[in-house]
Amino acid sequence: MRSSSYAGIILLTLLVSSYSVGFTLSQTDGTINRVIYMEPGFHLYEDDVVLPTTMDNYTIGFRMASLANAYSINAYGPQNESLSVAGYWNQTSGTLTITITTQNVTSFRLITILHAMTTYSNNYTAQVNFFPIVNSSPVVTTTAYLPSNALLLNYTPSDLSNSTSGSRAMISGSAQLTPETTTFGNVSFNGTYSIIEAESLNRVITVTSSGLKVEENILVTNLVNSIVRTVVFDAPKDASGLGVYDSIGSMDFNLTSQNLTVTLRTRLYPNEHAGFTIAYILPLSGYVQVDGSRNLISGNLLPEWCKILVKEISLTIIAPAASSDATIQGGTFSFDNGTINAKISNVSLTPYANRVYSLSYSPSSSIPNLGLIIAIALAAVAVIGYILFRKFGPKKSTIEKSPPPQSPQPEPKKDQPSNDQPKKYKPNYKKH
User: Fold this and answer.
1) What is the average pLDDT across 388-408?
2) Of 104, 343, 345, 349, whose Cβ has the fewest other Cβ atoms within 10 Å?
3) Same structural domain for residues 229 and 333?
4) Torsion sign, CA atoms 366, 370, 375, 379
5) 378 φ, ψ to 5°?
């Protein structure tokens, strides 16, 4: 089903007008450190602002093609307390101005997510706000990280420098800003990506004695103005037995060491959705920790393979039957037919704004825990090794003794009658 709607902006009141916000700062205008995490489907901006003095509010502006590009805006004080924000959209200049209430604080962090800022035509082109729009002259440093393994082609403004950090190209620079000045640029790069986001991701992890059975149902949205036939994710780490299916049945996919490419059931038009499930097995080792008589499962709510914006996410963990004494961080749990079902959920997650979960429980005494499973496995390996050694290992040399010679049995003489020969018949003649 096609949809032309965009995600609502979280914690943001927007007034669509040509209103210009003007607040005056002191002559000493503080500093801003901007870090930009670029992914094909979204850009996350982290602005760490140090104010020259306490003030009632502070403004930071973004330039974008449409108000719909703004997804979420949140501000936090030095104690991680939430600060109030309000936004004003100028249709003429294409500028979103954000006002942060800064009473009684001298520093804060603004986290802004813009989505659908990247297009594709032979290569990827992203629109980037390298520097914020402010009505003062702070000293600003900026660092923009491209998607992992992206090949940087070119960018503007060209006076910024570029380098690499691990698998990511980065663009950086610093400047003393001029009030109300826009520093808006384009970045072109190549790679293997999909410009998508997830409306929802529902994960179910079932703990068994042989591994973690994972089923992840995802509903993706096409963010580009062209038809999409495949979607690309990072390959799930340590996964085995991977499969992809939807309500109709199995789906085609291609799995490499780096990527999982899923062929969609039908073509996906702009702003359309497609849903399917990715299923695989994870080993117990590395994902289930044993602490005495308890087992612990922990990790990030958003899985490592998912480098896209997820609007709604839920995770259900099903512990082995007859497990007990459960404790959970970040969620709730219930008992269904004697089985622990833990549930955790959240909204608006990205790899850079993830959430941690953990579930601890006591396994049933009739079901071996992970430590016992490992001990049994090691014992089995030792026994098999001993049997193979006995069967195929080096043997002592031996000399076989020949049996003693036996005297030959005498053959019967040919002219000697056998005792079994019939007696000769003698007629009995009577005299008359």
Assistant:
1) 52
2) 104
3) yes
4) positive
5) -65, -40
Give bridge partners of residue 207 from the DSSP assignment: 212
**CATH no. for residue 179?**
2.60.40.3650
CA–CA dist 107, 386 (Å, integer): 67
Rounded to whole angstroms, the Cα distance separating 232 from 120 reads 14
What contacts 416, CB < 8 A, 6 or more positions away? Answer: none
Domain that holds residue 278: 196-370
**Percent of the chain clearing pLDDT 90 (strictly above):** 69
DSSP code at position 380: H
Task: Pick the last residue of a domain from 353, 370, 387.
Answer: 370
Which of 114, 138, 115 minimizes the C-alpha distance to 58?
A: 138
- Asked if residue 239 has pLDDT above 80, the reply is yes
The last residue of a domain, from among 343, 370, 397: 370
Residue 333, pLDDT score: 87
* 97: Cβ contacts below 8 Å, ≥ 6 apart: 20, 21, 59, 60, 61, 87, 88, 89, 90, 133
Please say whether the beta carbons of 124 and 146 come within 8 A: no
- Is 108 in contact with 77 (CB distance < 8 Å)? yes
Q: Taking 70 as the threshold, does the pLDDT of residue 386 lie above it?
A: no
Whether 119 and 162 have beta carbons less than 8 Å apart is answered as no
327/333 Cα distance (integer angstroms): 8
The pLDDT value recorded for residue 335 is 86
